[in-house]
Amino acid sequence: MTTSKSRITDARGEERPPTGSRRTAEGSLRWPIRETFVEYVERMRDGLVLVEDGAQRLAEGFSFPLVERIRTQEGEVLRFRGTAAFRGHGGLLAVEFAALEIVRGREGARLDIAEPGFPGERLAILDLGEPRATRGGTVFEAPTLTEEGADLFFGNYRPGTRFDAVRLPGISFEEEA
Fold it and tell me: 74 Cβ partners below 8 Å, 6+ apart?
């Protein structure tokens, strides 16, 4: 697997967090991921769907609480807590969505996750497209899988495959005055 270019390093090559205006905020990321994938895992004899570290499973999908919003010169990063993990096929299937981040910049918005097995590395798994304001939040209605995202699913989904909408209740992208 490749890693995304969202990794930020200092002059010595050591990873550092993005700098900019930091604040904690209320809100969450709610995402069914891909309903057909979740249903597939649940139909397996040994299929497991796990939520940890503050993530919740709700009727409309998985919920990850917002823990930090960082504004930078390039855009902003929204960090969410929690893990949704999928296991099955005697351990051959292991897909994990942990430490989600929405990274917004000049080139658009993407959804990144922690790369399983490689601490400090991130994968850009979805191109989110344009956000749309909703009553009480924001939605990315047509996210598509990136090449890294396709690798996460071992090629069972191709890059460009549409995934379920990413909803951000309590989070607005309107410019602050």
Answer: 105, 106
